[in-house]
Design a protein that fits this description.
Length: 479
């Protein structure tokens, strides 16, 4: 466009509308587009509720006059997901230069749109004159090469018939190495890692987006489903051993607890559940009043878990009693990790918060972008991917946190995987990266679709889900 237009016609900025509003005849509604533009670009003359409703229309292609028809629906029922919700809240915050109130965050994730609109009407924020600048994705950015380059090749792929956003689990069963993963098609598959051959296939009642957990005996997989149930799957006989029902969908990965006799996990029903692995009977249930997608961390008879509204909790492994809470200013999707005898929690606004095991704040480290990645412990560091398209290592020296960029990969990154002396990570645009710990690029491969799954590795192979409906097995070979 800049090569075509005369200089005096260059736009000051470009607004991106995710879906164009259409008329009842299926054509672009130009009046609705004009209304969206006028509302969006006059922040000094519009209210907070106007801003919020305009963003809803912009994200989903509604006319402002249609909002009354969708008020009883939730954000997710009109096509939203957790990432879109955070992006919308961040854009809303950037428009007004202030933090989103907790009531609005809670309403967006847990209530219908009418509750969201009611919360927005009560908000008073000063408009921000500065428009947010989004860094550009540059997956062709120049990276320094590693001395130990590897070639990445696709060994096999398996079609699960819908998007595979779930992170796979790799494990050994008897003499075979297996990989298990779920998809939006409701299919949950267990495959041979060498050949991609199907070992077991389950068709569950709804979407499977969470990562599974392997039972101590190695014969069962526990995985949550959007129908609100936690399933125990016997992949040796292709049978459902038991299911445990919660009141809402489950995206949280379960973790073994109580000396591996039970699993613990969170649900959108705002509760933490502890369930016996033998028969799925409830051990305890704790109401935390906010939905949970972050995987729990179990350590020293305590369970550390966070909510999508940003509350960090420590629970007794034995009884489920809440021992302490800490309120983060923004949602938490990534799992915590331990470092320097503290618990580190990543929130969406780019803060890594260090809390003692007693719930006292040690320090706060700010990153330059949003954080959806979990923190991965590697020796004396925590490795993570950031929305600013960089891969970071965080170290603590004399009680002071220090972050350094391992590599600028030019892509929004999922949770990394550490494999010996290298980091394997996926970018949302579809790239897989292998980087050494000095930041040298060892190898890169582009898959056909977007990636929101995290990479896992086993015996020189990488496994990752893709939005072209496939689970990929990628080989690494020395060049």
């Amino acid at each position: 466009m800049l090569h075509t237009l005369p200089r005096h016609c260059f736009p000051d900025y470009v607004d991106i509308v995710r879906k164009c509003p259409i008329t009842s005849h299926g054509k672009t509604d130009k009046k609705a587009l004009e209304s969206l533009f006028l509302h969006r670009n006059r922040p000094d003359k519009r209210s907070v509720i106007d801003t919020f409703t305009t963003l809803i229309c912009q994200y989903f292609g509604f006319d402002l006059n249609q909002l009354s028809k969708i008020q009883k629906n939730t954000f997710f029922e009109i096509g939203g997901n957790s990432i879109l919700a955070v992006q919308l809240l961040n854009e809303f915050r950037d428009e007004f230069g202030g933090e989103c109130p907790p009531d609005l965050v809670t309403a967006l994730f847990e209530k219908d749109l009418k509750a969201c609109f009611d919360s927005a009407r009560l908000v008073t924020l000063a408009p921000s004159r500065k428009r947010p600048q989004t860094p550009k994705t540059d997956t062709n950015c120049v990276l320094k090469k590693s001395k130990n380059e590897v070639a990445l090749t696709i060994a096999w792929k398996h079609n699960l018939e819908a998007c595979v956003d779930s992170s796979p689990l790799v494990f050994h069963h008897k003499s075979r190495a297996l990989v298990a993963v779920g998809s939006f098609s409701h299919i949950f598959a267990v495959l041979d890692t060498c050949t991609g051959e199907k070992v077991a296939k389950f068709v569950l009642p709804d979407v499977v987006e969470g990562q599974p957990c392997l039972s101590p005996c190695g014969n069962f997989l526990h995985v949550g489903c959007f129908d609100g149930k936690m399933y125990c799957l016997d992949f040796t006989s292709n049978e459902v051993k038991w299911s445990y029902a919660t009141a809402e969908r489950i995206k949280c990965k379960p973790a073994l607890c109580r000396e591996s006799t039970a699993i613990v996990f969170g649900s959108y029903d705002k509760q933490v559940h502890c369930v016996a692995i033998l028969d799925g009977s409830p051990v305890w249930t704790t109401l935390v009043s906010e939905s949970i997608v972050s995987a729990p961390l179990v350590q020293n008879s305590k369970i550390y878990i966070a909510t999508i509204c940003g509350t960090c909790l420590c629970l007794s492994e034995t009884t489920g009693t809440v021992l302490w809470t800490y309120k983060s200013p923004s949602p938490i999707f990534g799992a915590p990790c331990t470092l320097s005898e503290s618990i580190l929690w990543p929130n969406v606004h780019g803060n890594i918060i260090s809390l003692s095991t007693e719930g006292h704040k040690n320090w706060n480290c700010e990153c330059q972008g949003h954080l959806y990645s979990s923190l991965v412990r590697y020796k004396n560091s925590a490795i993570f991917g950031c929305h600013d398209r960089n891969l970071y290592a965080l170290r603590v020296e004399d009680g002071v946190p220090k972050t350094e960029v391992i590599a600028g990969l030019g892509d929004i990154l999922t949770t990394p995987c550490i494999c010996e002396d290298r980091v394997v990570v996926a970018g949302n645009s579809g790239h897989l990266f292998v980087v050494d710990l000095e930041g040298g690029l060892m190898g890169r491969l582009r898959l056909p679709g977007q990636i929101f799954s995290s990479v896992v590795t086993l015996e020189g192979k990488m496994f990752v889900g893709c939005r072209d409906n496939n689970l990929y097995c990628v080989m690494t070979n020395k060049t």
